[in-house]
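Fig. S4 source data, part A: sequence.
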Amino acid sequence: MISKSLLRDSLVAGIVVALASATSPFAVAQLNSGQPQILSTNQTITPLAPRGASFQPLNPNLADNPTYTVGQAVTTVVSPDKKTLLILTSGYNSVNYSTGPNAGSTNPTDSTEWIFVFDISSTTPVQKQAIPVPNTYSGIVFNPKGTEFYVSGGDNDNVHIYDLVAGLWSEVATPVSLGHLALANPALGNYGGIGLITPPEAAGIAISQDGTKIVVANYENDSISVLSNTGSGWSKTAEYDLRPGKINPAQTGVAGGEFPFWVQIKGNDTAYISCIRDREIDVVSISGAPSLVTRIKVTGNPNKSVLSPGQGHLYVAEDNSDSIAVIDTASNTLAGEISGQSITGAAAGAKSYGGAQVNSVALSPDGELLYATLAGQNAVAVIENPSTPSHAELQGLIPTGFYPNSVSTSADGKQLFIVNGKSATGPNPQNCVGLTPAQGVTCSASNQYIWQLTKAGFQTLPKPQEWELKGLTAQVLKNNNFFRGLTPQQTAKMAALRNKIQHVIYIIKENRTYDQILGDLPVGNGDPNLTQFGQAITPNFHAIASKFVDFDNFYDVSDVSGDGWPWSTSARTTDVIEKEIPPNYAGRGLDNDSEGTNRNLNIGIGNFIQRYEADPLDGADPNVLPGTANVAGPDSPEGGQGEGYLWNSALAAGKTVRDYGMFVDIARYNLPASLSFLNIPEDPTAFQDGVQVAYSTSPALAPFTDPYYRGFDNSFPDYFRYTEWKREFDQYNASGNLPNLSLVRIMHDHTGNFGTAINGVNTVELQQADNDYAVGLLVDAVAHSQFKNNTLIFVIEDDAQDGGDHVDAHRSTAYIVGPYVKHGVVDSSRYNTVSMLRTIEDVLGIDHLSLNDVHATPMVDAFDLSQKDWNFHAVPSTYLMSTTLPIPTAAYNSTVALKSMHDAAWWAEKTKGFDFSVEDHLDTEKYNRVVWEGTMGNKPYPTTRSGADLRANRAELLKSFREAQASASANDTNQQNSAAAPADKGGN
């Protein structure tokens, strides 16, 4: 249970800390330095706050790239003699050559995962080695003698073996194959894992006490592999499928054993496997042929685990429930759970908001203290009496770096070693490419793609004394905005707004930065030199930002779409997403499970026959992900599994909901010719033609999803998404029963599919203009409806990864339109994705979703209760004149048709081989460079990561920008004319 005295003392200390910071704000810190840093989440990290703490990035000391540091540190492990610490990365970690003849292209030697070896025999850890490993997924373990260690090989489906050779750790044998890749048949969509186009993924790894057996969790195969060492080396000797229906045909179609991630071995014969999707620990005997002993159900998603010194208890970190399961290994039963509120220090209440993300655990040498990493709160919890869950008590919280993944202790328990996976990114102006080869090389060599800027950290500190933990706990709570609240005036304003607004339309778009779209506004902190889709292409977004509020300090919390959709719909991610997405974006296997599909299968449909009928590509095996459990879904505050989304909260509050394109199965869009009979065609009049184009991946949303509204598909114009939305909106306007919450996906600013795009919307400029006009038309429709005075429209990008920004790689566009929204102002308050969700919740009067939005400040300064009147008229960009979209000529403000810099054939050739079927299923970094090349002409790009405030002297800045733009355009024209002129053959 939570210590009331600790909470009280921490709150008092927190008030002191908050007052001190209010009068002496810290300066902007150097990125990933350990100094106080504000994150895109609006949380603050202070890893150097503990007495004696040190913090450092992880540098493999590459001869060709000495300043390079890695990202996504995930696991720490200490050798049996307690003198060596290993740190393992599993993430993006893909780097381009920065200099030399190959500058700008991928450096395959450096683009690996890493094992860092530290000597911890003295107080200060000393880095001894950095060992590259091609791929891995969290798994690393020493043998009991400390003479070897083993690393799971991720999607390489193997196990690496390392031994000491001449005082250095080296790989001493060929990796042991686990055999799943050998069974793959890509021609049939079988990549070796269970699911659609899913490769295997070797994850957690453990070794028996006698050192003769290794067990590997096969994350994407719902199985374990057993390796044996008979003295001549290691080899695979058994494979055991954990699914009930595979063990016993009588249990066909019963969920269990899915997404095994972590494993511990008690003694020599019993393995405990964390199966994330089914929230169970599978106990397997490995004394002979593997066999199931029992399945132990737990509350949350079981993650990493640790055995007590005597192996009598297994402690399991649980995401979603933010708790720790305590398992009695003598009886193989659940002894109890250390509750989330006891771990996080959250104020006691009737509801338990998630988001702390308890993702790993470690014990003090005597087993009396349990340390748990709270990845979502950037902290480590220190817990007393862990073996008796009902009497477990929080000693305090320790601040860490961004997203801690693992903690270990020294031999005497007096030192803590903590690694975190992420960092603040800062500006990324060179996330681009130039038209000339020289510009392209320089840009890609900058390594400014968002995942390349996201770095890991290594924190070391003395174990804090109990009296120190009070102040550190207060610091953690302050860092996570626990002491932040609304003023009485703000509370009153939001309450009044709630009484006036009955409807919210929430639009999610794709992947743009503030500078990319609005950098050329006459107001705000925009850099026009980074503006690729300015006024001429996006007149409606410019009009909205100018007529209403320009949010020039708004940040998408997420890094990419893979975590952007969870943040945009549930105000948090889960640890599954945080672990899966970075390696997935680097092409290291794993699937994007963030929008209701698991392994690319529609688990929103639980019945396997109905699932097959909706999408035959999913297959008809009743033992493949049975049921509707979503491995990556967030829980609701009431504990509803996978029910922590915005629409769940609205429905629970008795609100009505309608979904247009969010959480839709898109597997049958844009299929190859061989599967054309399964393809759902791009049909602009799907309703009239009776063609279902949308199958929901959310059981909760399915009854409220428009089956005729097309989901993510770059071949399909947003204009027709608008017309389908408008078809239903006209009915609501006639009947007066518009849903309280409308979820609308308008996604063509993602761009792609240039060779198959319909209606001539087939260049980047046209697709951006199409997106702009569709949103503008929706706003226009509401402005001229009976819902004009009681409806607010919120527009957001799910992430900002696809462009440069001079302030931060996460800074993006956001819009609020409707009654009581201020007119013609710039709001530079530091808002983010969670701020917008909190605003929607408060306006609708529905419950919050997580610890993040509970403590967020709504965008209250954007509203003026006296500003009821508003209007809007959508105007299409004249770029769209070249398309066959049915836009009346009279809708345009000009008869001068602007043309894309390159035609569809150029774009199709430049992106040949790119997979635009799902968000970011391509080399996004490379695509960003192509987009710059195709839209910016012979324009040099800025190279300074300035973070400058450009709000002042906008007229002068824009004048200089336009003059440079005109000069560059003239140069382009001259070069084109020169290239087109007949060659001088002489003799004239």
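Fig. S4 source data, part B ends here. The first strand starts at residue 37 and ends at 38.
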